[in-house]
Amino acid sequence: MSAENEIVQAASSNIEGIRLMAMAFTIAIGGMFPALGISKVGAKAMESIGRNPEAASKVQTAMLIGAAFIEAIAIYALVVALIIKFV
């Protein structure tokens, strides 16, 4: 009986370790790519405002809406990571 308990406990800790790694990977990827996307959107917006300053308000509005959608992806990654941790 003791050996079976040790095996069950080892398997349980192994599964917990896999869950933590999956959570960390989800947060890493889910934070990295939206950050790259937002930086690219910001850079292109600044470039287009530099080329055409009269269109700054239109470009800024579109940039903020795009950044909000990109940021939503990072929030989805956080939700998935929390689901992995607690379920």
> How many beta-strand segments?
0
How large, in whole angstroms, is the Cα Rg?
Answer: 22 Å
Q: Could you give the order of the helices and strands?
A: HH
* CATH class term: Mainly Alpha
Helix fraction, binned, reads: over 70%
| DSSP strand content | under 5%
CATH topology (fold) name: F1FO ATP Synthase
Cα distance, first to last residue?
A: 29 Å
Low-confidence stretches: none
Q: Structural class of the secondary elements? A: mainly alpha
So what's the overall shape? rod-shaped
Classified in CATH, the superfamily is F1F0 ATP synthase subunit C
Number of domains: 1
- Compute the number of helices: 2
**Average of per-residue pLDDT values:** 90
Largest sheet entry: none
**What would CATH call the architecture?**
Up-down Bundle
Overview in brief:
This protein is mainly alpha-helical and 87 residues long.
What does this structure look like?
With 87 residues, this protein is mostly helical. It has a single domain (2-86), classed as Up-down Bundle (F1FO ATP Synthase). 93% of the residues lie in helices and 0% in strands. The chain is built from two helices and no strands. The chain has helices spanning 2-51, 56-86. The protein is rod-shaped, with a radius of gyration of 22 Å. The mean pLDDT is 90.
